[in-house]
């Protein structure tokens, strides 16, 4: 689903990079660098350099994955980081969410992630979340679909367009200083 969203983002002239956090050793904690082989600092640098953050997660037992929760916990370190104008470091950045799974909970998962990224300082565009849920207790995954359902495809494209629009708007008109 992330790649489908990125197709629209790339079509609007933006560069994208998928970082699969599951492939990194991200230590538990709420600091920017937990030391001892923690690979979060390299991911954090990518987030700081990006205008848009997509958090794409499966829904497991009605919640975001444990990896997503770890990412949100590590982003918690940004709550105490401000720019020279007193704004949160993530103010002016956009966050969107995509969720896939074979059970209920997509809306709750999106809401949980939205609340966390908003607290950290990200802006969420209109219709900033997209999801696909397969039939409960079945084994068909999003990657197994012959064709993405039109409602999912159009929503995913809207999320991408709105994210790019908001990111460009925030680049041209920053939030006012907090000081």
Automatic annotation (TrEMBL):
A GO molecular-function annotation: oxidoreductase activity
Gene3D superfamilies referenced in this protein's UniProt entry, alphabetically: 3.40.50.360
Domain (NADPH-dependent FMN reductase-like): residue spans on this chain: 2-125
Naturally occurring in which organism (per UniProt): Mycolicibacterium poriferae
Official protein name in the record: Flavodoxin
């Amino acid at each position: 689903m992330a790649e489908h969203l990125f197709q629209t983002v790339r079509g609007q002239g933006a560069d994208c990079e998928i970082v699969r956090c599951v492939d990194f050793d991200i230590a538990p904690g709420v600091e920017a660098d937990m030391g001892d082989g923690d690979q979060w600092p390299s991911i954090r640098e990518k987030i700081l350099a990006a205008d848009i953050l997509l958090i794409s997660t499966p829904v497991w037992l009605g919640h975001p994955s444990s990896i997503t929760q770890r990412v949100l916990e590590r982003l918690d370190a940004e709550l105490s980081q401000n720019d020279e104008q007193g704004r949160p470091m993530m103010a002016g950045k956009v966050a969107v969410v995509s969720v896939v799974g074979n059970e209920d909970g997509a809306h709750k998962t999106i809401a949980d992630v939205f609340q966390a990224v908003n607290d950290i300082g990200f802006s969420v565009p209109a219709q900033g979340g997209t999801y696909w849920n397969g039939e409960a207790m079945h084994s068909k995954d999003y990657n197994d679909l012959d064709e993405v359902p039109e409602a999912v495809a159009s929503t995913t494209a809207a999320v991408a367009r709105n994210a790019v629009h908001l990111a460009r708007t925030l680049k041209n008109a920053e939030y006012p200083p907090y000081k």
